[in-house]
Each structure stands twice: as structure tokens, then as C-alpha cells.
Amino acid sequence: MMDLVFTANDFHVLKPAVVLCLFGCGILLSDAFLVRRTGKRWLNAVTALVGEAIVALVVLQHLSDVRAGGAFSGLSGSIVIDGFGVFFNIIFVLSGALAVILSVRYMEAEGEHRGEYYALVLFAQAGMSIMATGNDLVVLFVALETMALSFYVMVGFLRRSKRSNEAAMKYLILGAFSSGLLAYGFSILYGIAGSTSIEAIGTAVAERPDGDWVTTLALITTSVGLFFKISAVPFHMWAPDVYEGAPTPTAAYVSVASKAASFALMIRIFLSAYGSAAESWMPLLAGIALITMTVGNLAAVTQSNLKRLLAYSSVAHAGYILLGLVAANDAGLRGIAIYILAYVFMNYGAFALIAALRRDGEAAEEIDDLNGLAGRAPGYTILVAIFMLSLAGIPPMAGFYGKYYIFLGLLREGYYVLAVFAALYVAVAAYYYFRIIRACWLTGSGDKPAALDLGLGTRVALVGSGVLTVVIGVLPQRFLALAGESVLLALR
Amino acid sequence: MLIDQVLFYVLAVLILGSAVMTITRRNVVYSAVWLISTLVGVAGIFLLQGAEFLAGVQVIVYIGGIMVLFLFVIMLVPLEEEASQRRFSNQKWLALATGLAVLAMLAVIVVRGIGSLDHPGPAPPPGPASLTQNSEAVGRVLFTEYLLPFELASILLLVAIIGAIVMSKARRRQTES
Fold first, then answer.
1. A58: in domain
2. ipTM score
3. How confident is the model at residue B140 (pLDDT cuts 50, 70, 90)?
4. How many domains does chain B have?
5. Residue A1 near chain B (CB below 8 Å)
6. Is residue A20 domain-resident?
7. Contacts A–B by Cβ distance under 8 A
8. How far is residue B157's CA from residue B149's CA, in Å, rounded to a whole number?
């Protein structure tokens, strides 16, 4: 035991999280001692972006290492850098950077532009980075809590807004409850295996008798905890309130990155720890996925607030992504990866468009606020169309490929009924996404039309996301190959 | 062995009973005191498992530190207003039914599954578990095997502190204006 020290390899494995934490602390210090005096709060965003750039370099280095020599691990196996983890780290870098860029203008307008916000973005990302690469229950749980706690604070960051405070409170209480369930499930897993390592648990679970009750209990409690985090029905109640109350860039960050990280955790646990008990979790996941798609899509149809609509649509998207895990074959898992990659761009795009809408200095978030934009801001309208078509999953947009591969995975495993339902709901989803596009062409109801408030950063982020949404859709080969590298196959 | 079992059930009743009292009291101070009793029960369970160090930490940190802070916070909040409000919404019976359903499910699973848990679980640390060896063992795994979660927990706490500052600043500004 005495030779167990922190080696260079351990450091290499941990680099993304270390860099993020250092930059997070750096922002806190520089904000207190330098930036606050100058009054130029956007300098904090620049620091955060430099941090993201360095993390991006580290992640690319990890990618080339994995390509050259396969997966490697550090810290006595509790962190594993494999294609899966690297892929999700890329997702987190993209969403962290987009969150920072979009926040500058929005937080300035809301009068809550402070350095702590950017530090929290980075701390949350450090947690997510470890969630995607962790291979040990304790590590995964603490990482999950680091992410969740940062999000609770970010959601309540608009301190003078009652809705923001309420959203943070709801998120905190439900999140703590779900974490409790998750911890209970983890404790049973530890009881089964006598070890917190995911691999050891996978082996121990495989040795349990068929239809084992203890494994089922662990399975149910961990899944319920994780269903909360990915806002699967019937554990989705927090999502619309939180998205509506949170600062819009934070809502985008929660809906994309926190969901991606929770899916990463879920996929690793289900495929590695419960890989041998697949017969018992397939029906559970299939049922939850089906209800999630149904409720998410049908509830989205009736919404008039854009953020609530996107919240229900993100619930529905979680249902589709779950279907990829139900298929659990190469096509399904590749579908999940490409789905989440496309989701980063299209969902950030959609939220960025909402964040830019203002009426009399207040954030404008109703569908009617889009009225008349086609005439006044044609470029903006084109972007609305691109993101909505992509969210609906219509080719040639990026969102199409995720759904295509997930359906393909379902059909290969013979889940025809699920595939039919999933395809039917695409039509329902198309209805409410087209309603948003149509709203841009309608003329206003006599009120003063909503104004657009686009900073340089937002413009760059919006156009970049729009271009990538189209590029992934038109030239998907490279992105599909990257997604293919991320596939984590079951232990079976 | 028998005395262990008896003690376990006594402590379990203490923990569960105090937990129920914690959430049903109208006065927050009473809730806090019942919570202390729950935490003492948990410390007792730790002792029973031979984890003296954890039991000590439980008493010092949770009861000595965190609960005192809780009480401080409670003293600073106007209590009369809180106490007059209803503790449970109309969903009380629905919640009770759901709770009982979950309890029934857990009971079925535990009764059916208990027989299959025949392996002894993680091996106890070798040798007589004296207090020094116990804390030594905890320290050893904390800084070797669980170094990463230990360090990560410090980030978690940093985030919590930032959150507390952000939220409390809000309150001060509101009262000023």
C-alpha cells in the first residue's frame, strides 16, 4: 500500500478537472482583487474562456492518447479515460464555453453580473468531467453532487427575481431527495460487491442468481435517482419551473450539460455495473422512455412560454435518448452520442435566441414575443428555423441523425412497437416546433414588439451553433466516427 | 451477538422515531432537538459496527458543529410566523399512501432477498480494532484509495460556501433597499 502515491499519470488523467478548478478559483480571486475595481466584469468571462480553451487542449490530448494506446486509467482505477469519457468531456467543454459566452450579455442586463457565476460554471464542469470518466461509486457520487450544487446556486442567481429563487429552492429540495435515493442504491451495490469499483460491482452482480431481489432493489433506487437528474417522467416536475425561473443561459447549461453528464453516469452504471442484469432493466427503461416521450411531447403542445416549451421538449428528448440505452447496441449507443452532440448546438441555439429577446428591459419569453421578427430580423428568423427543424429531427439538420441511429438500434433489437411510437411523437414534436417558426411570421397583437439585444459574443455563438447544426446534418461522417469511438459496450 | 441485535433494534427505533418527530413538530427548535437525537442514534449504530472514529466524528461534527449552527439560524428567523403556517399541504394522505406503498415494496424485497445475501460482505479490518487503529485505518484509506473523492469534496464545500455568500448577500441588499 505504501507505494500508492499521486503519480504523473494520475495527474494526467485528472487534468481537465484540475484545470477547471484552478481557473474557477482564479476567477474568484481575480474578481475580488482586480476585476471588481475596473468594473469590466466581462474580463471574468474571458478568463473562463481561456480555461475552457486549455481544457479543450487537454481533452484533445486525451483523445489522441486513447486513439494511440486505448483506454487508460489512473488513481488506482477510479478514473478511466476512454473514448466514452473523452467524448463527453468534449460535450462539456462546448457547453461550458457556450454558457459563458451567452451569460455575459444576459447577466449584465439582469444586473447580476458577478464573477462567482463563471466560477460556478467551471466548478460544475469539473464535476461533470469526473462524472463521465469516474469508475468508482464514491467518486461518481461526489462529482454528481459538485455539479448539482453548482447548478442550484446558478439557478437562483437572479436574487431579486422571485421565480429564480423559487426555482432554486425546488431544484435543491427535489435534487437532494433524488441524491438520497441514488446514495441508497449505491450503498446496496456496495453491499453486494464489498467494493466501490464499478468493475468489481459488475462482476459481483453477474454472480447473483437470476431475478435476484437485492439487485432489483439497487437497480430501482439508482434508476429513480438518475431519472430525476435526466428529468424523465414521472420525475420531471422540476424541469419546467427550473428552466422558467433560471437565468436563460443557465437553463441551457442545465438542460444540455447536466443532462449529458447524468446520461454518461447512467450509461456507465447500467452497462458496466448492471450489464449482466439487462433483462430486468430493459423493460423498466423502455416503459419510462415511452411515458417520458408521451408526456414531454403532449405537454409541450399546450405551452405558451418559450422556456417552459423547451423544458417539456427537453423532457421528450430525454425519452428518445433513453431509447438508445434500451437498444444498447452499437447503433443505439452511437445514436445517443450523436444525439447529445447535436443537442448541445441546437438547444443552446434555441435558448440563446430566447435570451436575446427583451421587451421594455424585461426578458421576453412568450411565443407571441417572436411575432413580426421575420420582417425585422431575417437572420434571426433563419436561425430560429434551423434550430427548431433540428430539434424536431428533420433532415438535413443535425437532430435527424441522433433519432435515425436510435431508431435503427431499436429496429435491430426488434423493438418495433417502441420505434413506431417514437416515430409518431416526432410528428407531434414537429407541430410545436413549427408553431415557434410560424410565430416569427405572424404580426404582433398591437403591443410594442420585442426588441433584440444581441452582443458580439452571442452573435458568434449563435451563428457558430447554427452552422454546426447544419454541418453535422449535411456532412455527418466525421461526427459519426467520433460518436462511434465513444461507444461503451456492455460487460456481457 | 444477542446484545448487539438488541442494541441495534433499540437504536433503530430511536433513529426512526426521532426522525418522524423531526418532521412533524410545529416548532422548529423542537425539530432540531429531535434531529440531534436521530444523529446520536446513528452514532450509536456506527459504534455497534466497530467504527469508533466515525461515531466520534458524527458526534463532534454533526451534533457539535452543524446542529449548533442550525439552532443559531433558527434563532435568527422569526419563529411565530413559521409556526402558524400549516406544515403539510392537502397531499398529506396521498403522501402517506405513497410512503406505505414504498415501505411495502421494500419489505417484500428485503424479506425475499435477505436469504441470498449469504456472503459476509467486506472483510473487517484485521486485528483488535482499538480507537487509534480505527482512525489510522480511516486516515489511510482517505488519503490513498479515496484521495480523489476527498479532494473533490473540498471543491463541493467551496461551491457550497460561494452559494451561501451569493444567497446571503441578496438578503442584505433587499433589507437595505
1. no
2. 0.90
3. confident
4. 1
5. yes
6. no
7. 100
8. 12
